[in-house]
């Protein structure tokens, strides 16, 4: 196979030029080396915050895309970690570079058949717009390598809202990709996965700094992403919902600290409140105020072997649309259906007293 990239040894890993025609450019700060492996894949914390929106929540507008990845064996052993960045000069997304035929992942698996699981941690969900075709390339790659599983974690959904012209196309492509379950899973980044990213892909992070609190705006964005991807694909995602600590005094402090702040810049026309230590809708809070959490560790589960389930479903729908019932109909639910035989018995005080007298007479007759 003739690869579409050039790879060079660096101090702490390798740097990769994904296309032969890429060169240093004033329009793109990362050109031409958009793929970096090993410790070369680490990025500064400021860049991680700006692109992934951690810990405060999504940042807009978002023009850069960044995808961290891990290549693992079937037992979960790490073969390689790295990242791919978008090219702003040539408008190329990271997934397009990684999953290109004869591209970097194609060559990696061709040269190491022990790779059985690919994990992506992306700033945006993959798209399938005409200039990128990321999902189409991913789909073709998975068809070519049916023994390889793919787990995609994303920080925010990309162009799936109705105001974007390609939203319908992107949503349909996400449904198509999700239909490859269990070979493919789509989930929001949440919970301990954030701390795993800080530890493995962000430079200058160590010890306690890795386990910094996930703030309200970020936690609510993750929950929103889980709801949206479920609504789009019909497949329930892996999602770690952070639970507040049980100590009442800490809950009181958290509620007091959250009093009077707004979340409108994260969720327009939607707000939340803390009730009995849990986030509930209706009041507003500041995304920059930390939530008191019990940290749920990221469970690094071994990948699912595709061959174990020959009857895998193509589309999985886990939601139910309940019929709309009017207020008048709810009142009518207490009435018996027409045509049902009903025995109506009215017990009056006189009837009850006469019944008691008859029972006393029967007892006297027995004596």
Automatic annotation (TrEMBL):
Sequence ranges assigned to domain CMP/dCMP-type deaminase in this UniProt record: 61-177
Annotated coiled-coil segments of the chain: none
Cofactors required: Zn(2+)
InterPro entries in the record: APOBEC4, CMP_dCMP_dom
PANTHER family registered for this protein in UniProt: C-U-EDITING ENZYME APOBEC-4-RELATED
Protein name listed in UniProt: CMP/dCMP-type deaminase domain-containing protein
């Amino acid at each position: 196979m003739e690869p579409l990239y050039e790879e060079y040894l660096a101090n702490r890993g390798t740097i990769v030029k994904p296309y032969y025609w890429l060169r240093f450019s004033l329009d793109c700060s990362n050109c031409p080396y958009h793929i970096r492996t090993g410790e070369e894949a680490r990025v500064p914390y400021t860049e991680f915050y700006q692109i992934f929106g951690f810990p405060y929540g999504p940042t807009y507008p978002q023009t850069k895309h960044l995808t961290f990845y891990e290549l693992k064996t079937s037992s979960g052993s790490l073969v390689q970690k790295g990242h791919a960045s978008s090219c702003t000069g040539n408008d190329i997304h990271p997934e397009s570079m990684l999953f290109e035929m004869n591209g970097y992942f194609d060559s990696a698996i061709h040269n190491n058949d022990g790779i059985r699981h690919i994990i992506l941690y992306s700033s945006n969900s993959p798209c399938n717009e005409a200039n990128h075709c990321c999902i189409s390339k991913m789909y073709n790659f998975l068809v070519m390598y049916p023994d390889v599983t793919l787990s995609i974690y994303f920080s925010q959904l990309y162009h799936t809202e109705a105001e974007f012209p390609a939203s319908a196309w992107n949503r349909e492509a996400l449904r198509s990709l999700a239909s490859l379950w269990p070979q493919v899973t789509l989930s929001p980044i949440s919970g301990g996965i954030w701390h795993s990213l800080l530890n493995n892909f962000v430079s200058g992070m160590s010890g306690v700094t890795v386990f910094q609190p996930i703030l309200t705006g970020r936690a609510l964005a993750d929950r929103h992403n889980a709801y949206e991807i479920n609504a789009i694909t019909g497949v329930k995602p892996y999602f770690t919902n952070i639970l507040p600590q049980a100590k009442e005094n800490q809950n009181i402090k958290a509620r007091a600290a959250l009093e009077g702040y707004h979340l409108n810049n994260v969720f327009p026309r939607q707000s939340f409140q803390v009730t009995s230590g849990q986030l509930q809708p209706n009041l507003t809070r500041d995304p920059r105020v930390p939530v008191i959490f019990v940290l749920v560790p990221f469970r690094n589960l071994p990948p699912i072997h595709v061959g174990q389930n020959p009857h895998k479903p193509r589309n999985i729908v886990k939601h139910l649309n309940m019929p709309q019932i009017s207020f008048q109909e709810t009142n009518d639910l207490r009435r018996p259906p027409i045509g049902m035989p009903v025995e109506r018995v009215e017990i009056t005080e006189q009837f009850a007293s006469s019944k008691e007298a008859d029972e006393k007479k029967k007892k006297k007759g027995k004596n």
